[in-house]
Specification:
With 287 residues, the protein is mainly alpha-helical. It contains twelve helices and no strands.
Length: 287
């Protein structure tokens, strides 16, 4: 039996949910977040702006629109030598940290041994300890074994500072790679061995490509941390200053536009490296 059109229930129009206006707590949270970001990044913005300031005097009002301080920086021999020393130190630190940290991560992931839990905690100790304690401890150790602070110069700024950076930052590689190995599917290695691949071939063609983002990300993070490390470097550096120590020495005589230009370059390089590291970590999580 058909129902008359007059008595059929009419379709109700869709109900639109109006956006809920932000309450007072949400507004306060946004305000607090904006305040935190302003507290962190506004001083950086001031340094960057003064790098393009026309006058050599750091004062208001700003007269923007010059690159002469970057040109002066390019002709500052001491600054260039310090930058080269920092780059060499960071690159060698990355290599040593990867050589030690990669096997260390595999040991933590693949083997069971007495004291493994305590060892996992101790791996994080160099990241937790204040840099001044690490620097004093390493300086005492190298003095005890008779290793000169300038040994290795000019190939590297000094083997003690290289080993000090490596000892402090190897834990970064271990923690990053170990976290990736925890999510690694061991069935891939078993399938490779079923196809008559030996352990080295399995590692090179199966395991390493799978964890390469973690390895590269850890290396970039170590590079960034080593590039601007100052506490351990202060105690272990030899005859040649690194860039952070050189800038610190210049600041003792006052802030100059060259210092602002150098700080701007360091900031941009650090941001670029961190962005690449974050993208690698994102790819690692989605893999």
């Amino acid at each position: 039996m058909s129902v008359p059109l007059s008595v059929r229930p009419s379709a109700r129009p869709p109900v639109r949910l109006s956006a809920r206006p932000p309450d007072r707590l949400t507004a306060l949270l946004w305000l607090a977040g904006a305040g935190v970001f302003a507290f962190i990044y506004l001083p950086l913005m001031v340094v960057i702006l003064y790098a393009f300031h026309r006058s050599a005097i750091i004062a208001w009002p700003l007269e923007l629109g010059t690159l002469k301080w970057f040109g002066a920086l390019a002709h500052d021999r001491a600054m260039i030598e310090a930058a080269v020393a920092s780059l060499k130190l960071a690159l060698v630190t990355v290599v040593i940290s990867l050589i030690i940290g990669l096997p260390g991560a595999f040991v933590l992931d693949r083997f069971e041994f007495p004291g493994k839990t305590a060892f996992r905690r101790l791996v994080l100790l160099p990241l937790i300890l204040p840099g001044i304690i690490t620097g004093v401890a390493l300086l005492t150790f190298f003095s005890f074994v008779g290793l000169s602070l300038s040994s290795g110069f000019p190939l590297v700024p000094g083997w003690p500072v290289v080993l000090g950076h490596s000892a402090a930052l190897t834990s970064v590689v271990i923690t990053q790679v170990f976290a990736r190995l925890q999510r690694f599917d061991r069935a891939l290695e078993e399938a490779s061995q079923d196809l008559y691949a030996n352990e080295w071939q399995t590692f090179w063609y199966v395991t390493l490509p799978t964890i390469r983002t973690a390895v590269l990300g850890a290396g970039l993070l170590v590079f960034t941390l080593s590039l601007d490390e100052i506490a351990v470097t202060f105690f272990l550096i030899g005859r040649q200053n690194t860039l952070p120590l050189h800038i610190w020495g210049l600041l003792r005589r006052g802030i100059t536009p060259e210092v602002n230009a150098a700080s701007t370059i360091i900031f941009l390089v650090s941001v670029g490296v961190i962005v690449i590291w974050a993208r690698l970590m994102r790819e690692q999580e989605t893999a």
